[in-house]
Design a protein that fits this description.
It is a single chain. The protein is mainly alpha-helical and 104 residues long. The chain contains 3 helices and no strands. The N and C termini lie far apart (62 Å). The mean pLDDT is 91.
Length: 104
């Protein structure tokens, strides 16, 4: 019952899984940012009237939250703070939902 030289320590496997989840979270937030920025253009295309600032305001706020959060996530990725990245992704999504319920 010896330890194999090919066995990976649990900490290494956990860190590798956290890195994968952090990458996926970063991609999801990037897609959310693109979707948030493109939404006013979609609304303008299907609307017969021009959009006002008050109609675009929630999308601008959500895009600002998402872009700043994505910037922070990228910086933390360089320092290998994967748990912080995952927490930031959850906080960004919660922030976007709060903006949605407050303004829409």
């Amino acid at each position: 019952m010896g330890v194999s030289i090919f066995a990976k320590p649990n900490a290494y496997i956990r860190m590798k899984n956290e890195a994968k989840i952090a990458k996926i979270a970063t991609i999801i937030i990037l897609i959310a940012l693109v979707r948030t920025i493109s939404e006013p253009f979609r609304l303008q295309y299907y609307s017969s009237l021009s959009l006002t600032f008050n109609q675009i305001k929630p999308f601008l706020i959500a895009a600002l939250i998402t872009s700043l959060g994505l910037f922070a996530m990228i910086i933390f990725y360089y320092y290998r703070k994967y748990k912080v990245i995952i927490c930031l992704a959850v906080l960004i999504i919660i922030g976007m939902l709060i903006v949605k319920y407050v303004y829409l």
